[in-house]
Amino acid sequence: MITEFVAKDEQFYISEVSLGELYYGASLSDREEEKRQKIEDMKVISPVVELSEDVWELFGETKAWLKKKKRRMKDLDLLIACVAKHHSDER
Prior knowledge:
With 91 residues, the protein is mainly α. 70% of the residues lie in helices and 4% in strands. The protein has a two-stranded parallel sheet with strand order 1-2. Helix 2 (16-28) packs antiparallel against helix 3 and helix 4 (53-68) crosses helix 5. The protein is globular and about 45 Å long.
């Protein structure tokens, strides 16, 4: 998947939250070192997007909106969505 983006000369980013999930998966793997190397390789071509105060504000607002609508989403999934939304709005 990463090579498809690179081949098309498209930039993509990874959130700190997703990075944490990748490290978690690598730590569970029987091939931990190999998985960690893939993460490091990915970070070279894919900048890591930090969680800004604006993202946290959007997270709080969105989580409250979902609660009022009686809908739920796992916090980490919601945080990843908020990072993507925030950065897509900046474009």
